[in-house]
């Protein structure tokens, strides 16, 4: 009996519970769905105004002295101490002695050869007086002006064939050129500065034995430098000598003005580039400095320059039309590391100034009224 009562109570409770659950479902069926807010990105835009855009080619390289001399010895001797030390950083004026080698022994042989020449000419003077009285005065004058302590003067000009045979037959001409050869070699014991400059490398010191063919050091002119850069072959017919170049240091703190001094006439077959030499002058510059050059190659008419990241792989860019993004095809005229030059985009076209993450054609956007960063606004 008790069991039937319990089952009846449970049945009634189940029916009541089912009634209230059904009522809850009916009440919530007509409840409106939640409205999902629409996200509109705020973007930075620019209005196209076509102008003439100069194409600037960026290149970099190290400075080298335009005037550089590698010093080598052509003779052998002891390095003698001079008025200035032969050390890196030492300055020399044009014509000053860079290096002097002991030439006392060789100098004696030169003087001996000059004396023999003098004696040979003196020995033929009696014959000249008798057989060639008309040429005797000029040879007498030559002997009077002959000074063993000075460079050997040029022989008198031979006026006729008989005189030529006579002078040549006595060995005068061969002796003269032998002396001049020795004198020329004597000058190699002293190396002078070909221009005002500075010694950048010294491989020998005073008192050491210098051998024939030995490298002694390097001497440069620190007032004029050149930088060698490699430019794409597409600019081979555009770059010309005399073009102005802006050079900047690594820290971008200083700008130097240079010019294109030379353009190589051949193209590197491996890299397909052409070598350009840029000349620059400034007191702050040193050999070996690393600089970046900006060369004005050409000018593109009816074009604009934008961030390279704004150009899509399909050669298109995003534009804004009625608060929607769209794409238009473009004609790239020049690429640089950070920008691209585009031609023939209609004036007044509204384009993006900065890339928009996740952008697609048909995307709703809002043009920013200032240069604030891109953000999301909820409408």
UniProtKB/TrEMBL annotation:
Signal peptide: none annotated. The chain crosses the membrane at residues 6-26. It comes from the Bacteria. The keyword Transit peptide does not apply. InterPro entries: MdtA-like_BSH. Keywords: Membrane, Transmembrane, Transmembrane helix. Residues 68-216 form the Multidrug resistance protein MdtA-like barrel-sandwich hybrid domain. The keyword Membrane applies. This is HlyD family efflux transporter periplasmic adaptor subunit.
